[in-house]
Amino acid sequence: MSKVEGGMRCVKYLLFAFNFIFWLMGSFVLAVGLWLRFDPETVSLLNVDKAPDTFFIGVYILIGAGSMVMLVGFFGCCGAVRESQCLLGSFFACLLIIFGAEVAAGVFGFLNKDKIIKDVQTFYTTTYNENNNSTLILSYQKVLNCCGTIHSPCPDPATNTKDCETGIKEFFNSKLYIIGYVGIGIAGVMIIGMIFSMVLCCAIRNSREVI
Asked: Pick from 87, 82, 85, 88: which is nearest to 2 by CA?
């Protein structure tokens, strides 16, 4: 028999629906993380020896967060259906931990955004100065539609071809913004989930006290 009635029963089903959406969001975040990690363009630029791995650190955090969100969403659904204080309390604690990790990752990404781009630019210019016809350099130029560097431009660049340092900045800015927007979206949804879970948990406790 249900331990909550009236408006709290509505909260129960809202929390269940929220957790199902939360689980779907976790699946989406995991898919975005895997796409960023195995995107052929990104892999061709960074999956080589001595390439900076700072960008992939942020991607791994995103993959881990997506996996955790899926797991937590599942337990949240179970807690809402079973009206379990233990599961709902665990759900709230997990959401709080993930929320803290998301904030930490967001701050890390924001503070290190320029460093990530600078590391890749330095890696490119160093490799370019060593051998400007290497397979890696040609890969950068093909993916980014660029040629040369700011200080060593190509002698006969094609129309609308930029230097590769500018191309690197534009490319990774777009990728990092994706990570940032996804993180902000998850954080907002988690706050709603924490509120719902605490309201339902308190309602279940109060109903037991009345009984």
From this structure: 82
Burial of 109 from C-beta contacts in 10 A (0-12 / 13-18 / 19+): buried
pLDDT category at 7 given cuts 50, 70, 90 is low
Rounded to 5°, the CA angle 17-80-188 comes to 50
Residue pair 182/62 in contact by the 8 Å Cβ criterion: yes
Residue type (1 letter), 127: T
pLDDT one-digit tens code per residue, 26-66: 888 888 888 888 888 777 777 776 677 777 777 887 788 78
Q: Alpha-carbon distance 77 to 9, whole Å?
A: 14
Handedness of CA 163, 45, 41, 25 (dihedral sign): negative
| Distance in angstroms (rounded) separating the CA atoms of residues 111 and 117 | 12
CA angle 109, 172, 116 (to 5 degrees): 50
pLDDT digits (tens, 9 = 90+) for 145-158: 888 888 888 877 66
Q: Distances from the Cα of 14 to the Cαs of 11, 28, 60, 81, 166, in angstroms? A: 5, 21, 31, 11, 47
